[in-house]
Design a protein that fits this description.
Order of helices and strands of chain A: HEEEHEEEHHHEHEHEEH
Shape of chain B: flat
Distance between the termini of chain B: 8 Å
CATH class of the largest domain in chain B: Mainly Alpha
Number of helices of chain A: 8
Structural class of chain B: mainly alpha
Oligomer: heterodimer
Order of helices and strands of chain B: HHHHHHHHHH
Distance between the termini of chain A: 20 Å
Largest sheet of chain A: 6 strands, mixed
CATH topology of the largest domain in chain B: MetI-like fold
Number of strands of chain A: 10
Radius of gyration of chain A: 19 Å
Strand order of the largest sheet of chain A: 6-7-8-3-9-10
Radius of gyration of chain B: 24 Å
Strand content of chain B: under 5%
Number of domains of chain B: 2
Bound molecules: adenosine-5'-triphosphate, magnesium ion
Helix content of chain B: over 70%
Number of strands of chain B: 0
């Protein structure tokens, strides 16, 4: 299975020399996760022995073939899925459930269809946890909408919007609570190339401002390189960490002048990622053939 | 009913145009219905006048309307109609008050579902008529028996639909609720209940249809001597075909009216479902 960087499975010693002063914000240690099928008495292992640390303020992208457990990993951090083995910690504390410090952008939007765009965004501010004073809600919602470029659609219902617009509502809803950790599950999957790039640039700007920690799932190699500080490549199911790649490209990457996409380093990382993922796809095919 | 649409400044440059919607558009369907019914009753009248069918079974439309008018004028219809309508609405209200919470509970709690569902499904599929002898035995021929059969008819479809609504809530919506800080009660109030509302309404719709059957069974077989069922029964015994048909028309109007009222309610309660189609 090719070379695996030492970082993909940080031992105690390695974790110590990475950031001696500051402990990792998110730490997954030897996590195995899966889903039980009670009817057939089987257990599907989605992730196996995954160890990973996410530093405060880091932008971590996760790539890997479909069904390799990316959403499962993000759900572990969110607190929806409990690990079968190992542990997931945020700020050193074991994750037992969702918390106001972690907001999520869902792969399938998960907007409330009976609420207008504005009221969907307010939903994040009006509940018991992470409650924002009423007077402040409208202003914050308006700011979040401006950020994702949806001013003027406050009164629209989700079914009146395109897929990309719905996803932007989902992003605005996650941003409006100003969470410490932003979990994003293929947030730009349903957006056209032009809008996608505009939103990537916007996201980079937002993150630079808010200093949020982001865990970002994507199927696009370019997107991962453009946005991330580090990229985690997950192998096909059961998902294990294949490699962790440092993206040492200068920021901001969406600046008019900076032509990151044409830099040789970008090309290097890109072709390396390509070969890794092609391996995975090939492996999956061969395995299918021998079955 | 979008007469004019304001064009707000939209950031992504989407163009919103103001459109004219004809003021007569909404009268069009009413007009079609009027013409439709006129033709229907005219054909009825002509067929009856041709006496293809024995007028004992098939009176003229005009005779039917005359019976309807006279029935209201001499006070034979109104007490029975109001008896039926009152009974029905009370029965439906009781069914909703019992059926909606129990159905929601069954959807939300596995234990409640396991305990209650055998009875609910048995009662949902059991033909209502089978209960009449027992109910007469217990309650006699009075009003309470008629009311009971309405409730027993309407309450179970309402229950089953509410349960289905809660059970089909999209898991990712519940997850969104949890992620964005909703407590358990808030999840029920802000996610599960609104999601279930259309199911509740369609449950009540089915409850109306079943409840009407229950009402008629109770009045026809219960022998209480009142209600639209009693009118039907008596007109049949007296070979009063115009009155028989007049009562049937009343029943049809009553059920269509109720269903339309529910539709109106549905559009109020769940406008997100198909704004574009309305
Ligand atoms: N709720 C669930 N119950 C049972 N199995 C599940 C569930 N969710 C995911 N799985 C299984 O776990 C595996 C990993 O799923 P996951 O959603 O994490 O993949 P993914 O990497 O996000 O895929 P994609 O890129 O297609 O979104 C899949 O094989 C999937 O079938
Ligand atoms: Mg996924």
């Amino acid at each position: 299975m090719g070379q695996v960087e030492a970082r993909s499975a940080p031992g105690a010693q390695h974790a110590a020399d990475e950031r001696p002063s500051e402990p990792a914000l998110i730490e997954a240690a030897h996590v195995t996760a899966g889903y039980d099928n009670r009817r057939e008495h089987t257990r599907l292992i989605a992730l196996r022995d995954v160890s990973l640390q996410v530093r405060r303020g880091e932008f971590l992208a996760i790539v890997g073939p479909s069904g390799c457990g990316k959403t499962t990993f993000i759900n572990l951090i969110a607190g929806f899925v409990k690990p079968l083995e190992g542990s997931v910690r945020v700020r050193g504390e074991e994750v037992t459930g969702p918390g106001a410090d972690r907001a999520m952008v869902f792969q399938d939007y998960a907007l409330l269809p009976w609420r207008t765009v504005e009221r969907n965004i307010r939903f994040a501010m009006e509940n018991r946890r992470g409650h924002v004073p009423k007077a402040e809600q409208a202003e914050r919602a308006a700011r979040a909408l401006r950020l994702v470029g949806l001013t003027g659609f406050e009164k629209s219902y989700p079914h009146e919007l395109s897929g990309g617009m719905r996803q932007r509502v989902g992003i605005a809803r996650a941003l409006v609570t100003e969470p410490e950790i932003l979990l994003m599950d293929e947030p730009f999957g349903a957006v056209d190339a032009m809008t996608r790039e505009a939103m990537q640039a916007e996201l980079e700007k937002i993150i630079a401002e808010t200093r949020q920690t982001v865990v970002f799932i994507t199927h696009s190699i370019d997107e991962a390189i453009l946005l991330a500080d580090r990229i985690v490549v997950i192998s096909k199911r059961p998902g294990t960490i294949r490699e962790v790649i440092d993206v040492d490209l200068p920021r901001p990457r969406f600046d008019e002048q900076s032509d990151v996409q044409r830099s040789p380093r970008f090309g290097e990382i890109r072709s390396h990622l390509w070969s890794l993922l092609a391996d995975e796809a090939l492996g999956a095919k061969q395995e299918g053939a021998t079955r | 009913m979008t007469e004019t649409i304001q064009s707000p400044a939209r950031t992504d440059g989407q163009q919103i145009e103001t459109i004219e919607v004809s003021k007569f558009a909404r009268f069009k369907s009413v007009g079609i219905t009027v013409v439709n019914l006129t033709i229907f009753f005219t054909i009825w009248e002509l067929v009856a006048r041709a006496e293809v069918i024995n007028s004992l079974f098939f009176p003229r439309a005009t005779d039917m309307f005359a019976a309807l008018f006279n029935g209201f004028a001499d006070g034979t219809i109104w007490p029975q109609l109001s008896h039926s309508l009152t009974n029905f609405l009370i029965g439906l209200a009781i069914s909703a008050v019992i059926g909606i919470p129990v159905g929601l509970l069954m959807g939300a709690s596995k234990v409640a579902d396991l305990i209650l569902s055998p009875y609910v499904w048995a009662m949902t599929s059991l033909p209502r008529v089978a209960l009449i002898p027992l109910l007469i035995l217990i309650m006699g021929f009075g009003n309470s028996m008629q009311l009971t059969i309405i409730v027993l008819s309407a309450v179970f479809p309402i229950m089953v639909n509410c349960m289905a609504g809660v059970k089909t809530v999209e898991p990712s919506l519940v997850r969104a609720g949890v992620v964005f800080g909703a407590s358990r009660p808030q999840i029920y109030l802000k996610v599960i209940l609104p999601y279930t509302l259309p199911f509740v309404i369609s449950g009540v719709n089915q409850g109306i249809a079943r409840g009407l059957v229950g009402m008629l069974i109770g009045e026809l077989l219960g022998g209480g001597g009142n209600g639209l069922g009693f009118l039907l029964d008596r007109a049949g015994e007296q070979f009063d075909a115009p009155m028989l048909y007049a009562t049937l028309i009343l029943l049809a109007v009553m059920s269509v009216g109720l269903v339309q009222a529910m539709r109106w309610l549905e559009q109020r309660a769940a406008p997100w479902r198909d704004i574009s189609r309305a």
